[in-house]
Every structure is written in C-alpha cells, then in structure tokens.
Amino acid sequence: MKQTKFFMNMLTCLPFMLAVALCSCNKKSSPTTDPPPNGNTCIFLGVDTCKQNARTTLTINLNSVKQTIHSFGASDCWTTKYIGNWSNVSKKDQIADLLFSTDTSADGTPKGIGLSLWRFNIGAGSLEQGTASSIADEWRREECFQNADGTYNWSKQSGQQWFLQAAKQRKVSYTLGFSLSAPVHITQNGKAYNGSGGTVLNLQSGKMPDYAGFLAEVTKHFQFDYLSPINEPQWSWGTATGANQEGTQAVNSEMAELTKLTAQQLSGTNSKIVLGEAGTWEYLYGKNTDNRGDQINQFFSPASSNYIGNQANVARIISAHSYFTTCPDASMISMRQQVYNKMKQVDPQLEAWQTEFGILGDICGQYNGAPRNTGIDYGLYVARVLHHDLAVMNVSSWQWWLAVSPYNYSDALVYINDPSGVINVANCKNDGIVIDSKQLWAYGNFARFIRPGMKRVDISSDGSNDLQVMAATLMFTAYKNEADKKIVIVIVNPESKEKKLQLSLQGGSVTGNTLNQYTTDAANSLKKSVTSAADIRIPPKSVVTLTGGY
Predict the structure, then answer these.
(1) Which of 182, 332, 419, 528 has a CA between 20 and 30 Å from the CA of residue 425?
(2) Both 352 and 473 in a single domain?
C-alpha cells in the first residue's frame, strides 16, 4: 500500500519535475529560477512560467578597475544671460536645484541631478554689437568682459554669473570656462564668427598673445578649474552675411600656439587647459580635413610639431563631442573603440572627455531635434549615448550642451515656456514657466550617483555580453567608491518588458543584501525604492540606478 502511494505521488509530481529539468540552469548557460510559489514542490509551473521567473545574474568584479570618473556637467550657454537676471529668485533657484542639488525629498527621491561640473561661456562681445553682430537671434549673442581698450568690466555676463554662483553654493566640484571666439575687437572681420568660409582662426595678425591674455585673465578672475580655448574648430561658422552663433574655425597649429601661450599666462595657478572640443569623435583618431583633425596624434604625440603634452598647465585630456556618431549601434561602438585604441597607442595616460551633447538633427529616423520632446524615449536615447561613452570610450567626464532652453528643440535639460505656458522664446527674457524633462532625469541616473573620484569596475552578465545585443536589450555599468565602500550600478532597459536580475559581487558582498533603487521611466523621475540584491526588477523602458554598500 505504501509503495502504491509512493508511485502515485511520483506520477503526480512528474510534470513539475520535467518542467524543472527543462528550465534548470547554471550560471554559465542560462539564468537562475525563482523557487515554486507557496513552497509546494508538486505544483506544475510549466516551461513558460519558469522562463518568466528567470533572473539574469549581473556579476561585478570589484578588483577589475577601468577609468576614474572626474565629473558630469552642462553649459550655461546663451540662455542664462537672461534667465539669470529674472527678478523671480524662486524660479531661478528651482532651475539651479534641478541642475545642481544633491538634496533629497522626504521619501529619499533626489531634488536634482547633482551636476559636478559647470561650463561657463566666455563671450566675445556680439551682444554689445546688437544687430551689427550679424547674429540674428539675440539669445545667441554674448557680452565680453574685455573692452576695446583692453580694460575689463567684470559686471558683464551678470545672468551667467548668477548661475555660476548658484553652482558653487550647491557645491558643484568643478568649473570650466570655454571660448567660441576671440573678442570682436581683435577678430579679422570684427565679428564673433568667421564668415570667410576658410579654415583659419578668426583673429587679426599678431593678436594671438592678446587672445591668450584675455582667456587667462578671465580664467584667473573666476578661478575656473579648467579652460577650453577652442570649440568645434572643424565647422565653418557663418557666411559673409551672417551666422547663427559665435564660433570660429581653427587649424591644429593655431590651436597648439594659443594653448601654449595661454598656459604660460596661467603659470602659478591651478587652472588646466583642456584641448580638443572636436565636432565629432572621428576627428580625434584619423580624420584630418584641412589640418583640423587627428588631434590625439597632433597634440599628444611627442613627435608632433603641435605637441602640448609637456605644458605645465595643460591637462592630459583630449575632448570631443558625441554629435552625429550615435547610430546605428555598430558605428557608435566601432568609432568609440577606435578612439580608445588610438589613445592607448599614443599616450596610455591620456583621458577622454565628452564635452558637448544634445539631440540635434535627424538621428537615423528615430529621434529629431525639432520639435521639443521631453518624454522617456528621448531620455532613454540620452542614457544609451552616456552608457557607450562611459563603457566603450572610457570617458572620465561627460558634459551636456544647453542646460536651459526656451526653444522648441530637444537639446536642453530644463525648458522654459513663456508665462502663459506656451513656447515663445521672445516672451521668456524676464519670466517663464520651468519645465523638467526625461533627458534631465535620465542624465541624473548617472550624474547624481556617480560622484567625482569613483572608479568604474567590470560588470558582466551571464547572458550575452555582445555590445550590439546589449545596446538593444540591456545596458549596464558599475562603479565603486573605495573610501566609503559604496557601489553604484546604472542599468538602461530600452525594451517594453520588465527585466529580472540578481547581483553578485566578486571581491566583496552587498551589505545587508539590499540596494536603494532609483527609477526613471514614463511615470517616475529618480523615484526611490528599496530592493533585494537577489531580486531586482527593472521596469520596461527605464533607466535604473542601484546604490548600496559592500
């Protein structure tokens, strides 16, 4: 009788045993599975249910260190000269908090994205010229601290100075001054752009020392940690009849000369020059149209006549912009691999900074600069670019273009509508309505938690680690703070389905086996929750940051 009952029980359990056998797994081949519910080992789950409960293991190797993170930043360009002079201080503080704050709400959700670097645009004087500047949009003109007689007026750019002080008050770690053009009174054409269509710097003959002196004086006055003297030298700025903004072309030899002269003037300070700001990554490792590219070799190979790596106030950093290099995935990955390999070949100690990005133009038919889009799809796109710049290029700093914008365009973090609530640029000079975006908060999944000095460490999946597959399914990077034993993991899920994960640490263990989770998706912006390291749920179409101790 006992034997009959035994065989009957075996037959009852056989379907479940077969199901478990079919979906049993090990770490090398496929994900682990949840235990059967209610502790009943004889409930028939079936293969499909087993797959639904499967979890992918993310393994962090704390001893395999990649780059050290320097900062995450954005620029004050164009708009803060007006917004910084609004009479409504509470609205200005609202913007500053969104960009710079590391405070949290009562439930632990961050109030802002905690930028750690702030870019200050050193104007060339087109704003004082008015319509004579031939820059049609007054928002894109800038004041200049230097007068035509060489004296300085430090009250200029007051709106930008308000945001600079707001950043410092909120303990932003670094400031960087960047120049788009020499002061108009020393340019060839008296404009803040080169409309000749040529390739050279828009500067009067013999005035290179004057431009260097101007940049050094502004840097010293504001005690900028970094100075970027030339921006996107590969592009032609304007025509004989006008331009959209300040800017100038420059060849490599001019960039090197200006850098050396400025470095000499910065002697005795702690300020460092960061050179490059190439229009795209490809100008760093090969493309050298009109002697305005191949910048890794040109500036950091000792054999080059344009070598600047031996200058005391020049950082061993090469910078470029991620525009126009983000699709398709294969090209995005390949280009970043080539830049990284070139850096290691020329100077293994050289760092890369991504110093300007926003959503511009038509991006493979998936995203477009116009009209303005503040939704999660654009936030996910920003996170995708961030992930690849950090994980493939190994950048140590990543910086956004327009921090604030009133335009009907998708290249900002914070947007301003006019007081009535509509997009009307002209009506935003004195007041407006502050609007956040998913670009802001998706960026915050990185900037708010990956703090200066943290080290990126190796993280792998028990599934495919093919870069192109990951770009379409699940992207992840990990970081550690050795001083206080903290870990940060940023996960990007571009798919419309939940992902189930568990975390494993090599070289340590997760404190308490629990993690704080901060989720940005269509409904949430860095919303805080708590999760088990053994059961992590990543919502569909989301960016998630996990933090904890180890």
Answers:
(1) 182
(2) no
Are the CB atoms for 274 and 317 separated by under 8 Å?
Answer: yes
In sequence order, the 6+-apart residues with CB closer than 8 A to the CB of 86 are: 92, 430, 431, 432
Beta bridge partners of 56: 501
Q: What is the Cα Rg of the chain in Å? A: 26
226 and 333 in a common domain: yes
Nearest-angstrom CA–CA distance, 106 and 147: 49
pTM above 0.85, yes or no: yes
Residue 411 shares a structural domain with residue 263: yes
Q: Is the Cβ–Cβ distance between 131 and 137 less than 8 Å?
A: no
Residues 340 and 271 in one domain: yes
The total of other beta-carbon atoms located within 10 Å of residue 183's CB is 25
> Residue 3 belongs to what H/E stretch?
helix 2-23
Instruction: Give yes or no: residues 251 and 284 share one domain.
Output: yes
Contacts 24+ apart (CB under 8 A), 39-46: 41/13, 41/16, 42/9, 42/12, 42/13, 42/16, 43/16, 44/15, 44/16, 44/19, 45/16, 45/19, 45/20, 46/19
Helices (H) and strands (E) in the chain, counts: 14, 21
pLDDT in tens, the chain (550 residues): 444 444 444 444 444 343 333 333 333 333 343 433 333 333 334 445 455 568 999 999 999 999 999 999 999 999 999 999 999 999 999 999 999 999 999 999 999 999 999 999 999 999 999 999 999 999 999 999 999 999 999 999 999 999 999 999 999 999 999 999 999 999 999 999 999 888 999 999 999 999 999 999 999 999 999 999 999 999 999 998 999 999 999 999 999 999 999 999 999 999 999 999 999 999 999 889 899 999 999 999 999 999 999 999 999 999 999 999 999 999 999 999 999 999 999 999 999 999 999 999 999 899 999 999 999 999 999 999 999 999 999 999 999 999 999 999 999 999 999 999 999 999 999 999 999 999 999 999 999 999 999 999 999 998 667 899 999 999 999 999 999 999 999 999 999 999 999 999 999 999 999 999 999 999 999 999 999 999 999 999 999 999 999 9
181 within 8 A of 246, measured Cβ to Cβ: yes
CB proximity list for 5: less than 8 A, separation 6 or greater: none
Distance CA 450, CA 429 (A): 34
Query: 541 near 376, Cβ under 8 Å?
Result: yes
In CATH, what number is assigned to the domain containing residue 403? 3.20.20.80
